[in-house]
Amino acid sequence: MVSLMNKKKYVSINAEMLGRAYKIAKRRYKGGIFIWSSGQGLNIVGTDRHSIIFFHDENGYLGDDFHHESLYFCASKFKKHKKFMQSLLYYKNHKKQVYIDDKTGDEGLARSIFLKQKVDFLFNFKLNESNKKSKNEESSFSIVCKSTDNKMLSQEILEENVLAKIPKIQFEPTPFDLDKIKLIDNLVLRYGSKSKKLKPVTIHVNESNMLCAICEHAFLISLPLFFEEDKTLKETFKSPQDEDKNIFEIALSEKKYKQIFNDIKKFLPDPGFKDNKKVYTPNEEF
After folding, report:
1. Using one digit for the tens of pLDDT, what is the confidence trace for 150-190?
2. Partner of 15 at 20 to 30 A CA spacing, among 89, 175, 219, 272?
3. Cα separation of 74 and 144, whole Å?
């Protein structure tokens, strides 16, 4: 039981964070999960080499006597335990912790002797407060790691090559209504298909902190929360010189919005302003 575990010899990480890190890591071959301490709490990263997700668990714990300063696991190590990892995303488990215990000394030795299995490290995963396992669920499992496993992540690699390159915004962080952010999903038409093809969307947050998303045939502009009470997009883009001027042309052709304007022109060859194409109608005579 975890409660009897020496509190200096195990790692504790939030279940949902571990589950979401794994969800990213398992997307591609050679994905992985990296866990390390920043002095207080734990950091966890999941990557499939194309995307990376980072979490800080302020309640995470890495024991003083734990034999490793950090942990790296190939996503393939969890292949036989997908149900356990997926269960971490169940709402009931979001606030729970997963305990990772180094069992190399006892259980690892037994495996080496009786199963003739080369074991450099053996780690046990257990969800705290888990009920007695049901017929279809694991309550805990162990995985074998070797010193030759491909360790593609380290704290130094992350700090020097990933975290340092995340662009820093030049304006204050701005809160957005999550439901408005979800509207971006409506830009890409599925046409009733469940295709897994790439759906490119360009995202901007402009100098006025408005959220802009652009893809082929569509774009979205959304005001941040607390922009100004009851202010609308039309009022935001209202021209003092010409109130009837197209608000999109005002919004997207001004110098400070130039990058957005260029991207819209790239994705939408006929966005409805600036030298519009002539539209054919069936009643038109040649």
Report:
1. 777 888 888 888 888 776 666 677 788 888 889 999 988 87
2. 175
3. 11
* Spatial separation of the C-alpha atoms in residues 170 and 158, rounded to whole Å: 23
Residue 262: its H or E element: helix 258-267
Name the pTM for this structure. 0.74
pLDDT at res. 228: 67
Best CA proximity match to 71, nearest among 47, 102, 97: 102
H/E stretch holding 32 reads strand 32-37
Residue 99 falls in which region: left (phi positive, over 0), alpha (psi -120 to 50) or beta: beta
Domains of the chain by residue range: 2-165, 178-267
Helix residue spans in 97-159 (DSSP H): 109-114, 155-157
Are 126 and 101 in contact by the 8 Å Cβ rule? The answer is yes
Helix (H, G, I), strand (E, B) or coil at 52: strand
- CA of residue 277 relative to chain centroid, distance: 40
Task: Read off the tokens for 228.
Answer: 């100004």
Q: Split the chain (286 residues) into runs of 10 and give each run's mean pLDDT.
A: 58 96 90 88 90 92 84 92 94 94 70 58 85 64 79 84 73 80 88 77 81 86 77 73 67 69 76 55 46
Distance CA 32, CA 37 (A): 17
In sequence order, which residues have a C-beta less than 8 Å from that of residue 156 and are 6 or more positions away?
Answer: none
What is the CATH code for 2-165? 3.10.150.10
Say how far residue 87 (Cα) sits from the centre of its chain.
18
3-state SS class at 239: coil
